Amino acid sequence: DTGLYYDEYLRQVIDVLETDKHFREKLQTADIEEIKSGKLSRELDLVSHHVRTRLDELKRQEVARLRMLIKAKMDSVQDTGIDHQALLKQFEHLNHQNPDTFEPKDLDMLIKAVSARYK
C-alpha cells in the first residue's frame, strides 16, 4: 500500500497496462528518468484497444469516486468556507478536463503525482 488516496486506482492502472505485452516490455526496460519524464506515457498510444477501453473504464470510475467524495465533503462543510484548491488537488493524478478517456496525459499526471509524493 502506497498510502496514496488513489492507491487502488494506481494499482489497477498498472495491472491493466501490464497486460499489454509491448507496454510491459517498455516498462521493464525503462529507467526511472524515462518514466518520470513522460517518455513512457507516449507508449500508451501503442497499447491494444482492449487495454485502452479498460483504462477508460477505470478513469471514469475514479472520476465518479472523486466526485462522490468531493460532494460528501462539501455537504459536510456546508457554508463554513470551502478550500477549493484542496478539493482540486484531489484530481492531481488525472486529467479532470477529460473525464471519459484515459490518455497519455493521464498516465503522465499519475506518474508525476506519485513521483512528487516520493521525492
UniProtKB/TrEMBL annotation:
Residues 1-114 form the NUCB1-like N-terminal domain. GO terms for cellular component: endoplasmic reticulum-Golgi intermediate compartment; extracellular exosome; Golgi apparatus; membrane. It is found in: Cytoplasm; Golgi apparatus; Membrane; Secreted. It comes from the Eukaryota. It holds the Pfam family NUCB1_N. GO terms for molecular function: calcium ion binding. InterPro entries: NUCB1_N, Nucleobindin. Signal peptide: none annotated. Keywords: Cytoplasm, Golgi apparatus, Membrane, Phosphoprotein, Repeat, Secreted, Signal. This is NUCB2 protein. It comes from Thalassarche chlororhynchos. The gene is Nucb2.
